[in-house]
Amino acid sequence: MTRRRHNPTDSRRFQDWLNAAYDDLRAAELLIQDDTLHNATAFHCQQCAEKVLKGYILARDEQAVDGHNLTWLCKRACRIDPEFSQWLDESAALNKFYIETRYPTDIPTEISDEQVGRLLEMTRQMFEYVVEGLHAWDELDELEAY
Fold first, then answer.
1. Residue 89: which of 126, 58, 61 has the closest Cα?
2. What is the pTM of this model?
3. 119 close to 42: Cβ distance less than 8 angstroms
4. How far apart are CA 56 and CA 75, in angstroms?
5. 95-116 confidence digits (pLDDT tens)
6. Relative orientation angle of helices 70-80 and 38-61, to the nearest 10 degrees
7. Which of 86, 74, 66, 93 is nearest to 9 (CA)?
């Protein structure tokens, strides 16, 4: 399966991806305050990382990419900036929360306070790195959804 496909309805503006990622980051920061919502927190961390990586790739490589695999997206970002290698392991860990946190399963996904805290911190660091690198802080829209 090629990763160069692009959903024709997806935005081709990297700032839209950063705004959407910012919404997910802020949602995760709110959700982590309730220790019964770790699955939702992890899901929003995964979504933030996915969107910020797609936004970064779009901004730097001018190519929209499809897919949800954070490891693949992070490796793709590494080709542009090797600094992304610092998030390869954590992005692989975060990958598993894309599906498992959204649907009921026979064996529940359990995420500890420590684990969800690490996931959120990694997500926040990646988000801030991208936004700072793209000089996009002033463009983030805190009031409107993407």
1. 126
2. 0.86
3. yes
4. 12
5. 888 656 565 666 677 889 999 9
6. 30
7. 66
